[in-house]
Amino acid sequence: MSATTQNPTSPWATQTPYRRQPTQREIEEKQQRRFSRWTLWASVLNVLFTMALVVSMLEVSENWWLTGTLIFVPQLPLLIPSICLLVASLVFNIRAALLNVACLGLVLFSLCGAGFSMKAFDEVPNSARNIRVLSCNVQNFQPDFSKVMREVSRAKPDIVAFQEARDTPPEMLTQFLKGWHFQHVGEFWVGSRWPINLVGSCGTTPYDNRLTALKVQVETPNGPVVLSNVHLMTARRGLANLSLASIVSGEGPAAVEHHAFLRYEEARQTRQFIDKSGDDVPHLIVGDFNMPATSNILDEHFGSFRNAFDEAGFGFGYTAPCRPVRFWIPNTPWLRIDHVLSSNHFEPLQCSIGELNGSDHRLVSSVLKLKTGNEPPP
Predict the structure, then answer these.
(1) Is the preceding peptide bond at 143 cis, omega within 30 degrees of 0?
(2) Model confidence pLDDT, tens digit, residues 339-360
(3) Dihedral sign, Cα of residue 91, residue 95, residue 97, residue 103
(4) Which residues lie closer than 8 Å to 231 by C-beta, 6 or more apart?
(5) pLDDT tens across 240-253, in order?
(6) In sequence order, what are the residues at sequence separation of 6 or more whose Cβ sits closer than 8 angstroms to the Cβ of residue 315?
(7) What is the pLDDT of residues 308-348, one digit of tens each?
(8) What is the pTM of this model?
(9) Which residue stretches of the chain are H helix?
């Protein structure tokens, strides 16, 4: 027998090399590393997606039908992926937690429009220069105007501006504001504890000479203040045409972009009307703008004014819609489309949103301080 020939009956001829079985702890550590990688990669993808969404919705906004549609849908569900990934990162990969916290901040402040001003908790000092302004789209005093009046009574305003107040105001309004001064033109109603004079109304061409603003001058103890009561066209006119079939055919996106152009032109003409008062007179611009803070139309035409909620509000400030909507929480608005704006003559001290659903919109109440230097001439 050759020296190199192996015995086929030898037990060493067929035995495989010995492999040590992993322990339970090693298996768990391997799974932990796998979950850690998955969490990190999912967090990175979430950051990229969120950044792309924020940039497109803020920069493109209503210039494109898709982003122009997205700014009008509820934004709060966009927080869900970041919240879930934040919980997972706290368990599996703590370094990824920072990415998800950043995403939460982006969505909260950029898309949801959250405001966290500490002014909201400060006690407003008594001052003769303070002006309390209240605005609400009263939906023709439906469905329950008594709830609106309950909040008006609580806010103790100096000036009240209503939109969609076409009918004769209910007796409860005139009785509560007995001794006030009023101006009522079309759907616009303005009341003030100080004398007010009608300056004019704004008819715009995009929607058949529709009135979009009423301007009055209020003779406050600290000098004249101009107030423009604004109601711009709703975006629903274009969004209502969207469906799967209309998107495929292109008719739906075309309708959204067409009405976005008309609303852009309407806002431009309204801003021209507002600017006719000049820059030397303190100006308040309040009402139902039908545009959230992410709208490029709102930013381009009214972004130069100070937004009371942005500077002195707390929370999301959502005002509409209050009516029941399918697939959404009842009586829970998701859009901040009602605003109190002001020229630089004012400093916003507080801004709050109503809580009762007396109308399809919740009211906006704000306290603004008229800066010194605006006294009437001797």
Answers:
(1) yes
(2) 999 999 999 999 999 999 999 9
(3) negative
(4) 137, 163, 164, 187, 188, 212, 213, 287, 288, 290
(5) 989 999 999 999 99
(6) 114, 115, 116, 353
(7) 999 999 999 999 999 888 888 888 999 999 999 999 999 99
(8) 0.89
(9) 24-55, 65-70, 79-92, 97-106, 145-155, 171-176, 236-239, 244-249, 251-275, 296-302, 308-312
